[in-house]
Amino acid sequence: MNLETLIQQMQQPEFYPHPVQNPITVMQTHTSCVFLTGEYAYKVKKPVNFGFLDYSTLEKRQHFLGAELDMNQETAPDLYLEVLPLTQDGEKLAIEGSGEVVDYALKMRQFPQSVLFSEMLEQGELSPQHIIELGQVVAEFHKTSKTNPYIDRFGEVEQIKQAVDENYQQTESYIGTAQSLEQFKNTKAFTDQFFATQGELFKQRQKAGKIRECHGDLHLRNICFWQGKVQLFDRIEFNEPFRFVDTFYDVAFAIMDLDARGRKDLGNLFLNTYLEVTADWEGLQVLPLYLSRQAYVRAKVTSFLLNDPNIPESEREKALETAKKYYKLADDYTKAKPGQLILMSGLSGAGKTTVARHIAQGLQGIHLRSDAVRKHLAGIALNERGSDDLYTPEMNQKTYERLAEVGIYLANLGYSVVLDAKYDRLAWRSPLFDQKSRFRVTVVYCSAPLEVLRDRLQQRVGDISDATVDLLQSQQANFEDFTATEREHLVEFDTTQGEVAQLLSQLERE
Fold first, then answer.
1. What is the rounded CA–CA span in Å between residue 151 and residue 218?
2. DSSP result, 125-186
3. Where along the chain do the CATH 3.90.1200.10 domains lie?
4. I need a labelling partner for 490 at 20 to 30 A (CA). Which of 39, 47, 268, 431 fits?
5. 3-state SS record for 326-381
6. Is pLDDT of 224 > 60?
7. Could you say which enzyme class this protein belongs to (predicted)?
């Protein structure tokens, strides 16, 4: 049975062994057909072979539908149900009939397009809380996703470089139309230099177990908020090099998509949530490479539309503008920036974390919370309440030493780093101020009336901080005042009166 006949029969309500919503909608891509019946959706793969993807035989379509089911049940178990045979008896096609098996269909729960992150963002319904949950979900997924020596081989620099170089070869013809020669040269020079000088970094990522069976296509149209939770679906099942990748390949895809849609603040929130759960600070070294790569691939794919004679002129014009945007974004990601350290300071409940998060989003910086670092050092979950052992002088010292170590490391990489802690001791501030000859160091001291501090701490729920009201008195008594040198780099901010936008402007001017 040919594909055209299959599509016709699967559009008939009587084909299905359950009630359907009529008419049945068919959504087609170059590789598959999806039939929307109301409660369920059925996916059939087209008998095509594009080299990087081969569904040309019945056996291959069965295999890849099974792989798609298994992989996506890990991240979206509510959506992916089973693979069913399509049988033919005479001229009639059926699901699990008695005739010859002529194809296979993946049965899924159907959900409204309105729950896609892409649609939610467009409608103004994608909240910071959705993005925080996404960061947590992706972090937990990466912790448990498969890795082994075979998968690990895909992290070798030669393999990654080959794929990136292929993108440049396939887009040279768009120089002068969709991208400028300068953009092309800049982007390629950046990746060439990265691969030539960072071989040891790629080996470290392999040794750290960061090459895993990832999602491979983690953009907003493959993420939904359904049945009260974030679900990742439509993982890449057809091509191993597309999914056996560094975990930051996935992270970069989601950030790039948010950035391209004009929400760099949400991209930053996703990144910092992911980092807080995983503590994979070293991954930030490869992030610019993968951000540029993901934007460039999106530019490349969009550029291909410019040569399609079947696309109307108006659509080609839109594709050209979209491609230009992605080529520019790919180039922008390669630009080096000066690093800096911003130390948050103040009593518990002063609003340091809220302000720090806004600063990080405004500066596209990395937000490091002492509460998270402390719990990582102790080996306990972020949402687990710490015992008294977590707050001994020795543990305090370890926590601030680790904050300084990671903060300086990231600032040297060119990141703006927001260190979110009380920083009430001169001994904890001094190692960071010792760096002021290398990059800018600023203290943001957050304050609020004492009764406000008490109210905030009493009302705090669902946060990783263990601070309580009874700590305020001792914190006030033990706070070591800023030195004259520190005051030259001090910004005081009343969180009950000040505007974060004004604070950001001040930080950007200094």
1. 19
2. ---HHHHHHHHHHHHHHHHHS---HHHHGGGSHHHHHHHHHHHHHHHGGGBTTTB-HHHHHH
3. 117-332
4. 268
5. HHHHHHHCCCCCCCEEEEEECCCCCCHHHHHHHHHHHHCCEEEEHHHHHHHHHCCC
6. yes
7. transferase
CATH 3.40.50.300 domain span(s) along the chain: 340-509
Summarize pLDDT for 60-74 with one digit per residue, the tens: 999 999 999 999 999
Contact between 233 and 76 under an 8 Å Cβ cutoff? The reply is yes
Mean pLDDT of the chain: 93
Give the CA distances from residue 124 to residues 223, 233, 393, 509, in Å, rounded to whole numbers and listed in that order: 16, 22, 46, 31
Tell me the residue type at 267: G
Q: Cα separation of 56 and 50, whole Å?
A: 9
Distance between CA 130 and CA 139 in Å, rounded?
14
Distance of CA 35 to the CA centre of its chain: 29
Domain with CATH 3.30.200 in the chain: 3-110
Q: What are phi and psi of 55, to 5 degrees?
A: -115, 30
pTM for this prediction: 0.92
CA nearest neighbour of 206 among 139, 162, 160: 160
Alpha-carbon distances of 188 from 203, 296, 320, 336, 400, rounded to whole Å: 22, 10, 21, 15, 39
Q: What region, left, alpha or beta, does residue 423 occupy, with left being phi > 0 and alpha being psi -120 to 50 degrees?
A: left
The b-or-e profile of 72-107 (16+ CB within 10 A means b, else e) is: bebbbebbbeebebbbbeeeebbbeeeeeeebbbbb
| Residue 145, both tokens | 């996703």
Chain-centroid distance of CA 291 in Å reads: 10
CATH dotted code for 117-332: 3.90.1200.10
CB of 70 closer than 8 Å to CB of 64 = no
SS3 91: coil
pLDDT score of 469: 67
Give the three-state DSSP class for 47.
coil
- Is 334's pLDDT higher than 90? yes
The CA angle 362-368-374, to the nearest 5 degrees, is 160
CA distance 77 to 125: 24
At residue 466, the pLDDT reads: 58
Q: Say which CATH architecture domain 3-110 belongs to.
A: 2-Layer Sandwich (3.30)
Homologous superfamily of domain range 340-509: P-loop containing nucleotide triphosphate hydrolases (3.40.50.300)
